[in-house]
Amino acid sequence: MTDERSVLNEYASLTDWLQEIAMKMSEEVFFSSIKPGKWSPAEIISHIRAWDDYLLQERISYLSSGASLTGLASTVEEVNRSAAAHAHSGFSKDEIINETVKERQKVVEHLKPLGRKQWTDTFYIDKFPLCLTSYIKGLIEHDEHHKLQIEVFMSEHGLLLSLN
């Protein structure tokens, strides 16, 4: 399997985690802060959905060889604030998880047909060189960070995890 396909498969695997692990939380636990002053699993998962949407709307179409994109400094707080508000706007746990699954699937479907050249072409974000493979690997690390936060929180609430 090529590197880009294994990266895409790993990126896509978040949907399995959401359906198999995150769905185990009760509504009460799902909407409870993981620590004082920190987000809830609902906000974290909504945050992942929001960034997948950002990737679709503001990044993928512009990632071509030599493209020069601006960084996220002015966008991060806005996207995160909106994601947190979305999590508390009346949606249920199932709705938040399912919409995040659907958003991730949209990103994956958009990336699937891309050829090796598109995965390896260099583009720039604030003059920092990247390729799509390294960019998606960074997003996988971001997913892993948040999955671990939620798994620790679930464990602290006595929810047994079967992490295969």
Task: Provide a brief overview of the structure.
By secondary structure, this protein is mostly helical. Helices cover 63% and strands 5% of the residues. Strand 2 and strand 3 form a beta hairpin.
What would your notes on this structure say?
With 164 residues, the protein is mostly helical. It has one domain (3-156): Up-down Bundle (Four Helix Bundle (Hemerythrin (Met), subunit A)), CATH 1.20.120.450. The protein has helices at 3-12, 14-20, 27-30, 41-59, 73-87, 93-111, 116-120, 132-156; strands at 68-69, 123-125, 128-130. Strands 1-2-3 form a 3-stranded mixed β-sheet. β2 and β3 (128-130) form a beta hairpin.
SS element count, helices? 8
Structural domains: how many? 1
The largest sheet is: 3 strands, mixed
Given helix and strand content, the structural type is: mainly alpha
Helix content: 55-70%
The CATH superfamily is dinb family like domain
Query: Briefly, what CATH class?
Result: Mainly Alpha
Distance between the termini: 21 Å
- Number of DSSP-assigned strands: 3
The CATH topology is Four Helix Bundle (Hemerythrin (Met), subunit A)
> Would you identify the CATH architecture?
Up-down Bundle
Proportion of residues in extended strands: under 5%
Radius of gyration: 16 Å
**Mean pLDDT, as a whole number?**
91
What are the segments in which pLDDT stays under 50 over at least 5 consecutive residues? none
Strand order in space, largest sheet: 1-2-3
Shape: globular
